Amino acid sequence: MAESTTEAAVEAVTAAARVSDLFARIHDTLGGWREAILAAEPSGATSLDDRIAALVLPALAEDDPLLIGAGFVAAPELAGGSDVRFCWWLGPLDENPVFGATRAPSKLDLAARSYSDYLRDFRSLEWYCVPQSTHRTHITGPYVDHLCACDYIVTVTSPVEYDGRMLGVVGVDVYVKRLERELLPSMLASGRPLALVNEQGRVTVSTDPAVLVGTVIPVGSDAEECAGTTFRLVETGGV
């Protein structure tokens, strides 16, 4: 029994490392895009949309892409007063009841989303205000994206700053169901029911059929931290 418990603990550590590795890849991608944005000549002939498209479209157009959305959201001061400037592209979308399915990347058109008015005050939204206040990359979610994917996603955003000035955030969206594909094998290998939770205890990925994505569960001091993220792995037996 002791040996089995030790093996399960080792597998939980391995599963946590898999989470860390996956989000480290995303953080590295965002870091590269952030540096490219800062290095670009603002007075160059290439438009901001074209510069961001050149950065993000290769990742969205990959075979079986990890990302479902990516781009840059400019600070209102950079965009010109209170204007909303989303340089954001969507990867091929799975079938959903609002937009159907798409087979190639496309630019997010806010004008075609009649219910996107809430974005006009996007500075109060978590994916923007937390990176702005902490000056660090932040993971938002899981939450249901009603704007585009109509499914559970997580959003990872990183502040783009120059000389103490907030220029905006660069970010990506990832389907939760894609995270499940990436993370469930290592979580299942522990032989214990596990849930990956965010810092509020909200479930992102679960091997326990009784613990659903989006629910909030208690997180004890024995939860396994996923280095480089705010995620933790929680054993759900008895939750």
Can you tag this structure with a few keywords?
239 residues; Beta-Lactamase; 2 domains; six-stranded antiparallel sheet; alpha+beta; 32% helix
How are the SSEs placed, and which strands pair?
Elements: H1 2-39, H2 48-60, E1 69-74, H3 76-79, E2 86-90, E3 106-107, H4 126-134, E4 138-145, E5 151-162, E6 165-175, H5 176-188, E7 194-197, E8 203-206, E9 224-225, E10 232-235
Antiparallel strand pairs: 1-2, 1-6, 2-3, 4-5, 5-6, 7-8, 7-10, 9-10
Structure description:
It is a single chain. The protein is an alpha+beta fold. The chain has helices at about 1-40, 50-60, 75-80, 125-135, 175-190, and strands spanning about 70-75, 85-90, 105, 140-145, 150-160, 165-175, 195, 205, 225, 230-235. The strands form 2 sheets. Strands 3-2-1-6-5-4 form a 6-stranded antiparallel beta sheet, sandwiched between helices. A 4-stranded antiparallel beta sheet has the order 8-7-10-9. Helix 1 runs antiparallel to helix 5. The longest helix has about 40 residues, at about 1-40. The chain is globular.
